[in-house]
Predict the structure.
Amino acid sequence: MSRTKVKKSVIADNSVSYDQLGPEFTETSALSGTAIDWDSAQVFTKTLGAATTFTYTNDEIGMVKDLVISGPYGITWPTGTKIIAGEYDTTVDNFIQIVKTGAAEYFLSISKQST
């Protein structure tokens, strides 16, 4: 078996522009249901109309998603989601960031604008 070495980068520096990135890195999507499809957008928005149980689809380790959620109702997150900072406030817009760190393991932080 021969050995080979990579002598230069496969993708040159600055060769991928923002316009070439997929929607999972560039789009905002208003959630109409409860499924957060990690392939469809980077930022998701939702105003809760009732207590909501979210689900994740098309999530991969290392992905990070942002949500802006408001509404006077409770949220249930998928199994494996660990809230590491913050608390959902039913009176303001909440900025929520989710990172997938392992198979069925997610770390979630909640922030809101200070008053």
In short: The chain has a mean pLDDT of 91. The two ends are 65 Å apart (CA to CA). The longest helix spans residues 23-26. The helical segments are 23-26.
